[in-house]
Amino acid sequence: MGGLLIALEGIDGSGKSTQAGLLARSINASLTFEPGATHLGIALRSLLLHSAANDLAISTSAEALLMIADRAQDMAENILPALSAGNNVVTDRYSASTIAYQGYGRGIDVNHLQAAIDLATGGLSPALNVLLDLPVSLALERLAGSGKKADRFEEAGVKFLEKVRTGYLSMAAADPSHWMVIDSNAPADQLAANILEQVKSRLEAHL
Ligand code: TYD
Question: Which CATH superfamily is domain 5-203 in?
Answer without folding.
Answer: P-loop containing nucleotide triphosphate hydrolases (3.40.50.300)
